[in-house]
Amino acid sequence: MGLASGIDSITVHWPSGVLDQYYNLEPNQSLVFVEGETGPDPCALGACPGCTYPEACNFDSSANEEDGSCDFSCFINATTCGPGTAWDPLVQQCIPVENACPTDLNGDQVTDVSDLLIFLAMFAIDCP
Questions:
Q1: Are residues 13 and 36 in the same domain?
Q2: In a 3-state reduction of DSSP, which class is residue 117?
Q3: Which of 30, 59, 78, 98 ranks highest by number of CB atoms within 10 Å?
């Protein structure tokens, strides 16, 4: 580059056909270029993987193909999951909790008269 005070642009033509363009570079430096790092937006070519759920914490408005990367953890708090369930960060959903409510004998996540009737019915049964 000789005594140039600046470099307007460099265009790298990769063997794969990808074009990368770099602008306003300083002279007298070593640069490492990576194929595709400044190339065309991959989303402009069709499929654009990412999180497509607007409710997700990491929603990507440019994505048009769901890739399973959505994260909903920013919405999780103690009241998010219903009674008898808890948030599982591994599967990112509310899952049933074993013995969350030992008085819920019919498994409807509520302790009410029907649970009392089940208890009373079992109370009268002889144990083996």
A1: yes
A2: helix
A3: 59
Distance CA 79, CA 85 (A): 10
- Average pLDDT over every residue of 46-66: 82
| 37 Rama class: left (phi>0) / alpha (psi -120 to 50) / beta | alpha
Is there a single domain that holds both residue 119 and residue 96?
A: yes
Cα–Cα separations (whole angstroms), residue 57 to 18, 61, 69, 95 = 32, 12, 10, 20
Tell me if 104 sits within 8 A of 84, measured CB to CB: yes
Q: What phi and psi, each to the nearest 5 degrees, are found at residue 25?
A: -95, 150
Least confident of 75-79, 93-97, 106-110: 75-79
Instruction: Give the range of the structural domain holding residue 111, as residue numbers without chain letter.
Output: 82-123
Instruction: Check residue 116 and give left, alpha or beta (phi > 0: left; psi -120 to 50: alpha).
Output: alpha
Give the C-alpha separation, 118 to 49, whole Å.
52
On whether residue 52 sits in a domain, the answer given is yes
SS3 state at 45:
helix
pTM (2 d.p.): 0.33
